[in-house]
Amino acid sequence: MQMQRIQRIKGKGLVVRGNDIDTDRIIPARFMKCITFDGLGRFAFNDERTDEGGRKKNHPFDDSRWAGNPVLVANSNFGCGSSREHAPQALRDYGIQAIIGESFAEIFAGNCSSLGIPTLRLIAAEVALLQTLIETSPDTVVLVDIKENTVSADGLNWKFSMPKSQRRALLDGTWDSMTVLAEAGEKISRLASSLPYLRY
After folding, report:
1. Is 8-172 a domain of CATH 3.20.19.10?
2. N or C: which end of the chain has fewer CB within 10 A?
């Protein structure tokens, strides 16, 4: 199996403003009774996207100017609360490929990393500028360069921070534990078949 190395992500931005957005807001608990994670994306931010009657509330995830864009820009302590893996799974299923913010809950960031979704930290002023740029110019394309540690948009360029272990896993392709385990199994199998005392 081929490891998927993630070095660059390029796409239009999507802004969700607010500090301390927890995992229950990202994916309400009642949608966690699923057997698989497939289809969770349609329930991401469900209670903020629809009212009790099921009517849309013009959330950015549904607004045609930004809906479906792959680069999410948040604020501070994004993904706090419970450690449910369903939250990053829902975001990935919706189409989010990278999240930029001021800070992230540690477990949420780790869960994102294991799905190949980088969580990149910029300082508050840089996040605010990027959010305003995306909201005022919906066609703005954001380039995330993991290798160079940069986020770029509309001629602007910022250095991001993220845990070294997560950055290395993305660049090496070792974020995907299933692929790593499969490759390890193949290596063990080849080694075992080469040992004369294990051939029979």
Report:
1. yes
2. C
Cα–Cα distance measured from residue 132 to residue 101, given in angstroms and rounded to the nearest whole number:
13
* Domain boundaries, given as residue ranges, for the chain: 8-172
What counts of helices (H) and strands (E) characterise the chain? 7, 7
Q: Hey, which bits of the chain come out as E strands? A: 8-15, 71-73, 98-101, 119-121, 141-145, 150-153, 156-159
Reported pTM: 0.86
Structure confidence by residue, pLDDT tens digits, 138-152? 999 999 999 999 999
Burial readout 134-167 (b: 16 or more C-beta within 10 A, e: otherwise) = bbeebebebebebeeeebebeeeebebebeeebb
Q: What is the DSSP letter of 121?
A: E
Token couple for 17: 């403003």
Residues 9 and 71 sit within 8 Å (Cβ to Cβ): yes
Q: What is residue 125's three-state secondary structure? A: helix
Give the pLDDT confidence of 10-25 residue by residue, as tens digits. 999 999 999 999 999 9
